[in-house]
Design a protein that fits this description.
globular
């Protein structure tokens, strides 16, 4: 899932209005993939190029219980919630933990059956929506649009960049999601992991800068 993950972060920031920045929530929502790419590079988890696995994404997780397993995601989410509660209180801690766990919930909808329940060698889940690109695009872009609208209504622009910057970012995320079936996959797992980490991590400073061009509206 791509656009849908951003949609969840927008939704949480605009709807729940936690102390966390939108940038922090985006990082939390994507934590599962950060871990997956790092663990794959370290040899702890494994992915393989399998063009027939789903129509929209050519890589399959063959061993990923820590980053994309139900038990692993639950543990990571609880740790995030407890750490967040110490920093910002129980409510915002729960929101941070929910953001982290939302990655698993989003991915289980679109992935093929490569998401472990407990052990990486045990039963795996995945409803395979990525095999139906039109419906996957509708779900993901719908999530993104709903979240972006809620966020934009809960904040106001300080300047011209604030009026359009994060909206343009949302449009780009939606466009990448729609174009995914036609984007050639990286030929090696290493290239996938390094490139994805650079893209996901490299955009966070830009998102943080764009976020500073808006300010929250008074609640109510």
């Amino acid at each position: 899932m791509i656009a849908g993950h951003y949609g969840v972060a927008y939704l949480l920031k605009g709807g729940a209005r936690p102390k966390w920045s939108l940038t922090t929530l985006i990082a939390a929502v994507w934590l599962g993939d950060y871990l997956c790419f790092v663990f794959t590079l370290a040899g702890v988890e494994r992915q393989v190029l399998n063009p027939s696995f789903t129509r929209m994404f050519a890589y399959q997780i063959t061993y990923g219980p820590y980053s994309h397993g139900l038990a692993g995601a639950a543990v990571t989410s609880v740790v995030a919630a407890l750490a967040g509660a110490r920093m910002a209180g129980p409510r915002d801690g729960a929101i941070l933990g929910g953001a982290v766990f939302s990655h698993y919930l989003g991915d289980i909808i679109v992935h093929g059956p490569d998401m472990a329940i407990f052990s990486g060698d045990g039963p795996k889940l995945g409803f395979g929506l990525w095999n139906y690109p039109l419906f996957a695009d509708l779900v993901e872009c719908g999530m993104l649009a709903a979240g972006a609208v809620l966020y934009l209504r809960a904040t106001r622009a300080k300047n011209g960049v604030g009026r359009s910057g994060l909206l343009i970012l949302a449009v780009i995320a939606g466009a990448i999601t729609i174009a995914l079936p036609w984007i050639p996959p990286p030929p090696t797992t290493t290239q996938l992991c390094v490139g994805s980490l650079a893209l996901l991590g490299g955009t966070l400073p830009l998102i943080a800068w764009l976020e500073r061009q808006r300010e929250p509206l008074p609640a109510g």
